[in-house]
Amino acid sequence: MNKLSESMPDALRAILARRSVRRFHRDRPVEGWKRDCILAAATSAPSAKGIRPFRFLVLEDRSILDSLADALSQGIIFKEAPLAIAVCADLSSYPEGSLGWLEDCSAALENTLIAATSLDLSSVWFGVYRRSPKEEHVREVLKVPPHVEVQGIAVIGYGAEEQPPREGIDLPLIGVGTWDMAFDMGK
């Protein structure tokens, strides 16, 4: 463990430990109290102007998870996962034409994933919005009305694989100053 991670608070450790896991122990359900903690974190996400367009579909029913798995070419993860949370946006409460709901829902989805990690669960962000034909299939299975968008789905469970946590700062991703000063040097 490096010096930076030794001095980190638990919240930052959870952020660095959060990795995408796509294989789960199907026979090990997520405890209700853990699910509720995750939902508390999700609903606490920031929202532009406090509009809070996000809505969360908790998917624990095996028939719904299996229907997603059957409908999607990448849906095998739903066959194994005991829990998924679809992060949706009710656009009826959002200014027409604004895409700020994407940021609101992204923050909620990230809160969901980090909360799962902090509870010793594994997860993956399953992207849905503007991913055809995936988006259409998800909307159909979840019976989503036209004024609601599905931003993505957090697939959650006890991981059947492990990913090491990230450590420290990934320096090639960091630039100082303007883009041309930070990243276009030497071109």
UniProtKB/TrEMBL annotation:
Pfam families, per database record: Nitroreductase
Domain annotation Nitroreductase: ranges: 15-91
GO molecular function: oxidoreductase activity
SUPFAM superfamilies for this protein: FMN-dependent nitroreductase-like
Keyword Manganese annotated: no
Keyword annotations from UniProtKB, A to Z: Oxidoreductase
Key word Oxidoreductase present: yes
Superkingdom of this protein's organism: Bacteria
Family that this chain belongs to: Belongs to the nitroreductase family.
Record's protein name: Nitroreductase
